[in-house]
Amino acid sequence: MNSTKTLKFLEEGDFAQNFPEVVSFLLKDHEAMRDLMDKVNSSRLVPSVIFKHFKNLEALVKSHMAAEEAALVNPLKHHPKFKDEALESYEEHRIHEHIFFGIRKLKAKDRKLAQMKIYCEMLEHHLKEEEHDLFPQYKAYFARSSKRKAGKKFIRVRLKTAKPKSRIGALGR
Ligand SMILES: [Fe+2]
Ligand SMILES: [Fe+2]
Questions:
Q1: Extents of the domains making up the chain
Q2: Hey, what's the torsion of the CAs at 11, 147, 88, 158, to 10 degrees?
Q3: pLDDT grade, residue 101 (50/70/90)?
Q4: Ligand nearest to the CA of 28
């Protein structure tokens, strides 16, 4: 779904019946991250191109984390069943920010490249953990209407925080 269509959904106010549930958006973003990670890990691409893909990955991860926290993680932080998973996701997001900051500061290209690839391994681990633990439990526990409401919140924050290159995944076609 493109962002214009998504906005139309939001404006029409019929999302209670038609708007997708939040997990489907989360998974679309995760998929877009994996496409970018493949490029960062590619042995055929030159460093300058890899740096560009990593920059796009960073923008996508940051927009995704902001939306994921607003729609899912923060509301679950005090929920007896979900608080451990939610707090773990939240703190992991903070670590991702530290790593991005550290990589940006690095001057030596080879070290930058090495750390970008290591970061992708950590990100993959984070995505898998959410997909295997948090998302299935969330999907099974909450009513469709709350999951759709969370989907709407997710898209709102994604649209607000997305750079032009991070209008992919949940905001893509
Ligand atoms: Fe996350
Ligand atoms: Fe996520």
A1: 20-164
A2: -20
A3: very high
A4: 2
